[in-house]
Design goal:
The complex is a heterodimer of chains A (444) and B (237). Chain A is of the alpha+beta class. Chain A is built from eleven helices and 18 strands. Chain A is globular and about 65 Å long. Chain B has one domain. In chain B, strand 2 and strand 3 form a beta hairpin. The chains are: A alpha+beta (444), B alpha+beta (237).
Chain lengths: 444, 237
């Protein structure tokens, strides 16, 4: 007893000391630092932001990538390889789909960024409300069988194409707290004030969170976003998928693909139909975790370097014209240790208290370019779109949601509705000032 | 001694545990606030829009073009109003001709969107305003004051689309009266006219103005593959 008591006391002492330290604690007033950025040059190996382990590059035929089993426990290089993998029918591709890999739509100038790929959505108006096309609003461009290539009828009068967005730096965007987005929107003048969406987080039993990903801000977490894309862009089911192209996180997630909308009617193409030989769920969730963690571990798009003199001159004009009201320059992510995504994810040190410059408020606005499509933000969102984040915009040349504009100037001129004042302020600048402001945007 | 050591350890442990338990728990993100109503960017109308006066049209034209164009005197009905872009604010369509000594200025960095709805947009071959052009400007309205509002400056300047018998065609009626035909997707009202011997319509869609000729229309380029009619749902065998 004489020996046991001191030892027991020492153990108790050590445990009492260790336990509180082992749990991440958000630190009030923790000093925020600038998020690491990529130089937006595929020749430079600088995408990793420090979330999770880096690992070593995957070389086909030499080593196979290993998917994570939970968020953050994988390796960046493995996740990047899975993000870049070309899916096949044996993997569950299709029966209807848009492309064969994440990287197909998110590739230029580096893995995870932009492309010219388009997504097509359609529906019609009934009693003043938007209604999905039969079989779902998402009309896939491709199929594994010509019998189920999707077509719409002329009854579907609302049609919209959307160009794909960049995912670089999205881990930081995921780590912005709801309240931070709310405070930002609340500070906007009433006429320009954006609307934040409340959307379900699939992995948190559909707990609501402010949306921030996608043209309609229809996703709030990267896992939900990735699961939704795996189903809706590649036709691969998983427990994290949404359904019907609405990103709805349905209760029956992972059990079936979207039906095909064809000239002969809506066709159920899910297993065990002759069109789909693979049982659902086609992915056990590992791939989706890899996609989410790859995106979460990418650096934010960095500025042009060196910054041209015209862009420096245009910097202050961006604010004086009023572009920054919706294209919010700066956010600070939640502190490390903060529980987000309805409790499903804890902000890691690599993403916590980071200052980012997305040039978006992640809110919906009506700037006169609305596409008429309703996803999961109600009928009022039909003609609203999320403010396009401008970081990295210099790396793309097809602009606005339909990718039909090829100059920043025309894109500005197309801003109307809530952006009318900003456009008119731009037009009131001298020609030289307008060119400077455009140079600034193209330096982002 | 042993008792003293045990007592000291107990006190130390208690102090540590108590101190640590007072540290803040892991923060939890606040739940989002309830869904917010969308602000009205275009306030609802109280009274029907008043008929346009020539002086008001001239003022709107000058607001955008600052003396670079004049209302074309050779056209009897040289302006129309309607909600062409479907934002519930009345727009103004007006036939113009450029002022000859302002043409270079107009082509330098125009604050409007110059388009030719009858020719596919080609960024490699930018359009220019020419001396003899007959132009149709569509000035989009803003808010309750429509095209008369000082903020109403978003303008499409259209080439090669001014014909005869120009009139406004209500968008909803147009779709209703054309059921069963292959149609474009007008976002608002259309401008009907006879152009180079053909009856057709100008309409706004996908952030530009396009030309619809019912005799030759084969579908918008973005909807290749659209078809008429629809059979019943088919289940795989």
């Amino acid at each position: 007893m004489r020996k046991v008591l001191p030892i027991l006391t020492l153990i108790l002492f050590a445990v009492a000391l260790f336990v509180p330290m082992s749990r991440p604690q958000p630190v009030e007033g923790q000093t925020a630092t600038e998020a690491p950025t990529t130089d937006m040059d595929a020749k430079t190996d600088d995408l990793f932001n420090g979330f999770g382990a880096l690992g070593t590059p995957i070389v086909e035929c030499v080593n196979q990538p290993v998917a994570p089993t939970a968020r953050g426990n994988g390796r960046f290089e493995d996740n990047k390889a899975i993000f870049s993998e070309r899916e096949t029918i044996d993997d569950g591709l299709g029966p209807t789909y848009n492309d064969v890999a994440c990287v197909s739509c998110h590739q230029s100038v580096d893995v995870g960024a932009f492309s010219q790929e388009m997504e097509f959505r359609a529906g019609h108006i009934s009693n003043g409300a938007f209604v999905d096309a039969p079989g779902g609003q998402l009309i896939h461009a491709r199929a594994t069988d010509s019998d189920i290539v999707e077509h719409i009828s002329t009854a579907e009068t609302v049609k919209a194409f959307r160009v794909t967005t960049s995912t670089l730096g999205d881990g930081f965007v995921e780590a912005i707290a709801n309240s931070t987005l709310e405070n930002n929107v609340a500070a906007q003048p009433l006429a320009q004030r954006g609307v934040l969406t409340n959307v379900p987080v699939t992995e948190a039993n559909n707990a609501l969170r402010h949306g921030r990903f996608g043209w309609k801000a229809q996703q709030a977490s990267l896992l939900s976003f990735a699961g939704d894309a795996y189903l809706n862009e590649m036709g691969i089911t998983s427990k994290f998928d949404g359904f019907g192209g609405r990103s709805s996180a349905a209760a029956d997630a992972g059990t079936h693909e979207n039906p095909a909308s064809t000239a002969e009617g809506v066709i159920d193409v899910t297993f065990p139909s002759p069109f789909d030989p693979i049982q659902d769920p086609e992915d056990d969730g590992g791939d989706v975790l890899a996609f989410a963690d790859f995106m979460a571990a990418t650096r934010a798009p960095g500025r042009q370097n060196p910054i041209p003199a015209a862009a420096t001159r245009g910097d202050s004009l961006f604010n004086s014209v009023g572009c920054n009201v919706c294209h919010t320059r700066t956010f600070t992510t939640a502190a490390a240790g903060t529980s987000i995504n309805g409790g499903a994810f804890t902000v890691p040190a690599a993403l916590g208290s980071k200052i980012i410059h997305p040039f978006s408020d992640f809110a919906l606005h009506d700037v006169g370019t609305g596409d008429g499509i309703v996803q999961n933000a109600g009928q009022g969102s039909a003609n609203q779109l999320r403010t396009a984040p401008l970081w990295g915009i210099r790396a793309r040349n097809r602009l606005m949601h339909e990718g039909l504009n090829v100059t920043i100037f025309d894109s500005i001129q197309l801003h109307a509705g809530q952006a009318t004042t900003a456009r008119n302020n731009f037009n009131a600048l001298t020609a030289a000032q307008r060119n400077d402001l455009i140079a600034f945007v193209l330096s982002l | 001694m042993i008792r003293y050591f045990a007592l000291l350890s107990f006190v130390l442990t208690t102090v540590l545990v108590t101190g640590c338990s007072g540290s803040k728990p892991a923060a939890v993100e606040q739940a989002p606030v309830a869904y917010q109503a969308s602000p009205q960017s275009t306030p609802p109308k109280i009274a029907p829009p008043a008929a346009p006066k020539l002086s008001e049209v001239e003022e709107a034209v000058n607001r955008v073009f600052k003396g670079a164009v004049v209302i074309h005197p050779d056209y009897k009905s040289n302006f129309l109003t309607g909600d062409f872009n479907g934002d519930t604010s009345q727009d103004l369509a007006v036939v113009l001709k450029p002022v000859p000594d302002k043409i270079a200025e107009m082509n330098e960095q125009p604050l409007w969107l110059l388009r030719d709805p009858r020719t596919p947009y080609n960024p490699r071959a930018p359009l220019h305003v020419e001396k003899n052009d007959v132009l149709l400007a569509v000035i989009h309205g803003y808010g309750a004051n429509d095209w008369r509002d000082p903020q109403a400056t978003q303008t499409f300047l259209l080439k090669n689309v001014v014909g005869s018998d120009m009139r406004v065609q209500n968008g909803k009626e147009f779709v209703k009266n054309s059921s069963g035909r292959k149609l474009p997707r007008p976002q608002g009202d259309l401008i009907g006219e006879t152009l180079k011997g053909s009856e057709g319509y100008l309409y706004y869609n996908a952030a530009t103005y396009s030309w619809y000729d019912p005799k030759t229309f084969t579908g918008e380029t973005e909807t290749a593959g659209a078809f008429h009619g629809r059979g019943g749902a088919r289940r795989p065998q």
